[in-house]
């Protein structure tokens, strides 16, 4: 069995997540997203879609998914939509702010899908919406505000 805190992306039964789908350069060193076991379904300019299967360690004291796990999934999807895989190597687009509305609970074994689309762009700033679903049911809606900045040289990886 693998250590859930250091393992490569895996399903809740420990099997590796499929990497056959589109890849995104920011995920190469993104240990948080690897820990989530997020699978990339779409990685296009301004549009991304990822999914994860909820594991027991993602739940809170009420035996439902911790809101922070859903926020993290949405935030990762948002970051992928803001940063095109073949984009400018000298800049990075980061979150300037974000909020989420939780509509329904999720439980262990649920497959959650996050899909991001741009809403507005103005210079270096943008607004993106991310809808998080379980099957076809919306469980949360995330709105992220982005800002494009020079790529940080110290401690950054690409």
For the termini, the CA-CA separation is: 30 Å
- The fourth-level CATH homologous superfamily is Hotdog Thioesterase
Helix fraction, binned, reads 10-25%
Number of domains: 1
**Pairing-aware structural class of the strands and helices?**
mainly beta
Query: How large, in whole angstroms, is the Cα Rg?
Result: 15 Å
What is the typical, i.e. mean, pLDDT? 84
* Number of helices, counting only DSSP H or I runs of 4 residues or more: 2
For this structure, the CATH topology is Thiol Ester Dehydrase, Chain A
How many runs of DSSP E, i.e. beta strands? 6
Q: What low-confidence regions span 5 or more consecutive residues with pLDDT below 50?
A: 1-22
Instruction: Tell me the name of the CATH class.
Output: Alpha Beta
**What's the CATH architecture?**
Roll
SSE pattern = HEEHEEEE
| Strand neighbour order, sheet with most strands | 1-2-4-5-6-3
Family: Belongs to the thioesterase PaaI family.
Keywords: Hydrolase
GO molecular function, one term: acyl-CoA hydrolase activity
Protein name: Hydroxyphenylacetyl-CoA thioesterase PaaI
Write structural notes for this entry.
- With 158 residues, the protein is mainly β.
- It has one domain (25-150): Hotdog Thioesterase (Thiol Ester Dehydrase, Chain A, Roll).
- Helices cover 14% and strands 39% of the residues.
- It has two helices and six strands.
- It has a six-stranded antiparallel sheet with strand order 1-2-4-5-6-3, covered by helices on one side.
- β1 (39-44) and β2 (47-53) form a beta hairpin.
- The protein starts with 30 loop residues before the first helix and ends in an 8-residue tail after the last strand.
- 28% of the residues are buried.
- Mean pLDDT is 84; it is low at 1-22.
- Keywords: Hydrolase.
- Pfam families: 4HBT (PF03061).
- This is Hydroxyphenylacetyl-CoA thioesterase PaaI.
- Residues 63-138 form the Thioesterase domain.
- InterPro entries: Acyl-CoA_thioesterase_PaaI (IPR052723), HotDog_dom_sf (IPR029069), PaaD (IPR011973), PAAI_dom (IPR003736), Thioestr_dom (IPR006683).
């Amino acid at each position: 069995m693998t250590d859930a805190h250091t393992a490569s992306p895996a399903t809740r039964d420990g099997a590796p997540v499929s990497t056959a789908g589109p890849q995104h350069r920011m995920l190469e060193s993104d240990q948080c997203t690897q820990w989530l076991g997020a699978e990339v379904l779409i990685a296009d300019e301004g549009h991304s879609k990822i999914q994860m299967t909820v594991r027991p360690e993602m739940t809170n004291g009420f035996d439902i998914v911790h809101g922070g796990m859903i926020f993290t999934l949405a935030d990762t999807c948002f970051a992928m939509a803001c940063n095109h895989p073949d984009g400018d190597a000298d800049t990075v687009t980061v979150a300037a702010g974000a909020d989420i509305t939780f509509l329904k609970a999720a439980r262990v074994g649920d497959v959650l899908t996050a899909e991001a689309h741009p809403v507005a762009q103005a210079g270096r700033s943008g607004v993106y919406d991310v809808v998080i679903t379980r099957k076809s049911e919306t469980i949360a809606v995330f709105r992220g505000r982005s800002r494009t900045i020079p790529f940080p040289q110290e401690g950054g990886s690409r």
